[in-house]
Amino acid sequence: MLSKMFSKDKLPVLILLFLAGVINYLDRSALSIGAPFIKEDLHLSATQMGIIFSSFSVGYAIFNFIGGMASDKYGAKLTLFVAMIVWSLFSGAIALAVGFTSLIVIRVLFGMGEGPLSATISKMVNNWFPADQRASAVGLTNSGTPLGGAISGPIVGFIAITFSWKISFLLIMIIGLVWAVLWWKFVKEKPADSKEKSTVVNINHVSQQRRPLTFYLKQKTVLFTAFAFFSYNYILFFFLTWFPSYLVDARHMDVKDMSVITMIPWIVGFIGLASGGFVSDLVFKKFTNKGVLFSRKVVLVTCLFISAVCIGCAGLVTTTVSAVTLVALSVFFLYLTGAIYWAIVQDVVEQSSVGSVGGFMHFLANTAGIIGPALTGYLVDQSGSFTSAFLLAGGLAIFASLSVIRFVRPIKYASPNKESVKITV
């Protein structure tokens, strides 16, 4: 399977999607690393900083959906090309911010640019890989995101200390623009032949009759997968936006040490996300008779539940080492589920709607990025500690993991004679 997955024609797709993920989280997490400097320079409170963190997700969540629809209509290659240029420019524009309002506007526009990434990755994987490789391919390509988060600490922290936090944002803007040129030059929308496409249909057992988007938006499988993804993103955005400030404010680290410590959860998260898809595909092969959806749920429920327990306990421990260890474990198990949400959509949705349905799911999931960071800032201001924020993140994910067991089921499609047919996937 690996030799076919890393074939000469697919390798540029995998590499550049992986690098897109690296750049995406390098850009996105740069603000949280620079937050102590920005907060001081622009005289911002924790509540204001939380609102700024959340403002990113306003544009991001909306364009998760719009970007998914665009990838179905205009192609994933063009959609991601435009998205990379837009988000890189507005990442650099952070250096021009002069206060609270300007930061909010820039972050909303930056979020709009980053919004289409995951849906376009899902669409490109659906175009290029058969069903028994998709979770692996999604996990591998998306594993660039925690790696980007890992390197942002040293890069942004070092540049901010040595020169200025503004220069770091200009540097990562240039990196994104270079990627866009390489993407347009070396990647095609679909493979030249259609042999693999027919393999996808045969393994998936999903009807290829085109249905309206509203059909999928009413399916419990889609809605509760989105809810689980919401809890995933709630923990992720809590970590992504507030963990550096937690280390500085609650654990009294200096920025230099914080920049290094933040690498640890990101690195183990990279391992989790890169391996999560392979784990799911292996479970699928081992329990083929139970259907592909069973393998997805086993990994999703187990790992999301463990992640929830770890992040909740991190808010209760008293030492920095134990807190960082628990957060790292939480991120590792969280990222083991990272490819599964997209794999479920690809398993149960017809190919022509994968981008739109995946984008809608991602939109719902990323409302967590609007609610979570702002709510965390409010809780910190009101309570004077991060404990309640940790417990809330963990409790939400426990509830979501249990709901997946009950509500994520094979979708029922209508047969040509209008009778309801349950497709076991």
TrEMBL record:
**Any stretches that span the bilayer, and where are they?**
44-66, 78-110, 167-187, 221-243, 263-284, 296-317, 323-345, 357-380, 386-408
Q: Does the keyword Membrane apply?
A: yes
Where does the Major facilitator superfamily (MFS) profile domain start and stop, copy by copy? 13-412
Q: Which GO terms describe its molecular function?
A: transmembrane transporter activity
The record gives the membrane topology as: Multi-pass membrane protein
* Primary location recorded for the protein, binned into one broad class: membrane
Any one GO cellular component localisation term in the record: plasma membrane
Task: Kindly indicate whether the keyword Cell membrane belongs to this entry.
Answer: yes
Q: Which UniProt keywords apply?
A: Cell membrane, Membrane, Transmembrane, Transmembrane helix, Transport
SUPFAM superfamilies in the cross-refs: MFS general substrate transporter
Localization (cell): Cell membrane
Q: Which PANTHER family match?
A: FI19708P1-RELATED (PTHR11662:SF399), SOLUTE CARRIER FAMILY 17 (PTHR11662)
* Name of this protein: ACS family hexuronate transporter-like MFS transporter
Q: Which organism is it from?
A: Neobacillus bataviensis
